[in-house]
Amino acid sequence: MKNITPFAQLFLRLALGIGFILPVMDRFGWLGAPGAPNVGWGNWATFVDYTNSLMPYLGLSAANVMAILATAGEIVFAILLIVGYKIRLASIGSFLLTLIFALSMLFFAGYRAPFNYSVFVVSASSLLLASISDYKWSIEKKRL
C-alpha cells in the first residue's frame, strides 16, 4: 500500500457521486413509491415537504425553489465527480451544499439527524477531495 491516494480519491469521487444520484432518483420516484422499502421520499411532493421542514422560515413555494436548486446541484456534482471533470469545483460545491443541509438538519431536525445520516461526513469528505492536488483517473488528467 505504497501510495493509495489515487485509488482513495477515485473511490471517494464515485461514492460521493453515486451518493448524490440515488437520492435524486428517489425523489423522482424512480426507486419506488412513498413508503416502499428503502425509499425515503418516493415523489417530488414528499421531498418538497421535507425540504420545507428543514427550512420552516420559508413558505412552501420557496421550499420548492430550494428543492429544485439542491436537486440541480446534486445532479451536476454527481456527474462531474463520477466522470472526473472539474473535480475541485464540484467538490467545493458538494461541500457547501451538504454543509447547508447538515446545518439545517442540525437546527430543524434535531442534533442527531445530520450524524445519523452522516451528512457532516459527506461534507468533510467533499472538502478533503477538493484539497487533493492531482486527480488520477479523471478527464482532467487525460486532457493534460
UniProtKB/TrEMBL annotation:
GO-annotated cellular components: membrane
Keyword Transmembrane helix: yes
Topology relative to the membrane: Multi-pass membrane protein
Pfam families documented for this protein: DoxX
Transmembrane regions listed in the UniProt entry: 57-82, 89-111, 117-135
Keywords per UniProt: Membrane, Transmembrane, Transmembrane helix
Compartments (UniProt record): Membrane
This protein's record includes keyword Glycosyltransferase: no
Record's protein name: DoxX family protein
Species the sequence originates in: Pedobacter paludis
Lineage: Bacteria, Pseudomonadati, Bacteroidota, Sphingobacteriia, Sphingobacteriales
